[in-house]
Each structure stands twice: as structure tokens, then as C-alpha cells.
Amino acid sequence: MSTPEVRRGRPPTFDRAAALAAATRLFWQNGYEATSIHDLTEAMGIRPGSLYAAFGDKRALFNEVIEAYGRSPAGEFIWAAMAREATAFAAFHRILFDAATMYTDPETPAGNLLCSAAAADVDVAIYMRDLRNASVDTFEKRLTTARDEGEIPATADPRKLAAYFTTVMHGMSQRARDGATAAELTDTADLAMAAWPATTA
């Protein structure tokens, strides 16, 4: 029987979930580059040594923040709509209208964390780019199914439509950070859905 691993040092004396939530808000508000270790430890209410011991370095903490964000309502609403709505039209309608509400929620920083936390660091920038591009792939897959099932015309291009709806979402995130209201973003969502390719009767 293997011997249980013994963790050295004193265990954390802070609320890890609360500290992670504070780090999330800070990265969301300021972006990766502009958020310093000093800013993080101050917001999280811990010392630098505790941050490094519990989370690793700044990059490791940021990775954990992104993973936790993906499991939160603000991060998983796209996948929830894809899973729960019976049609592609209903899924995209829900995604855009939910985005209008979530991106302007006064309880969280404006916009979407994946769009807001831009970084000059090359590795982080590539990491964030790949996460954002995952939406295009997910959208394309759903739209391809919609085309195969006759929900959208056979002539529709799922990849171009996926890129379009991703661009709308990212633009809505930036508009929210620039002060757009939920009503304004709802109007944008309405206009975007008007571009949905309809099949002929």
C-alpha cells in the first residue's frame, strides 16, 4: 500500500474560493498584463508567499481563474444554450440575448473575461486566442448540424456564420466595457438574429 503524500508547510488559512473570486474580478477588470502580484495579494487578502504556495505564480493563478470562470454562469452560458435548446436558432437567440444581460450585469465587471483579459505576453495571448476561437468551432459544429437537418439552407456556410456570431458576441463584450446598456446590446442581438439564414417555404 502506498504511503499518503505528506504536504509540507502550514495549510492555507484563507478562504481559497473567495481569494480566487477576488483574483477573477481583478483580471476581468484590468486584464492580465495590468494586474500585478501586489494588486492580487491586496484584493485577495493574502501575502505573496501564500499566493505562490496556494496557486503557484501569476500565470498559474490566471489559468485557474479561467478554468473557474468557464464553470461559472458567466462562462458556461454558451454551452448551456447549445445543450438545452432544441434548435440552432433558439440556441443562438438565447446566447446573444443572455450575453446582453450578462455582459452588463452590475454584479460583475463588464463584458466577457475571455475578451477583457487581453495580454501582451505571447503565451498568454495565444492561450486566450485559442479559448476564444473555440467558440467558432462550437458554433460551426451546431450550424453544420442545422444545415444537415434542413433548419438552415443547404447553401449556408456554417464556418462563416460561426465567425459572424462570434464577432457579434466579442463586439458586444467590448461595447459593454465601453458603457453600452443591456437595452443597446439587446438591440444588437435582435439585428444579429435578423441575419439568420431562412429556408425557403
TrEMBL record:
Residues 13-73 form the HTH tetR-type domain. InterPro entries: Homeodomain-like_sf, HTH_TetR, Tet_transcr_reg_TetR-rel_C_sf. Keywords: DNA-binding, Transcription, Transcription regulation. Pfam families: TetR_N. Residues 36-55 bind DNA. This is TetR/AcrR family transcriptional regulator.
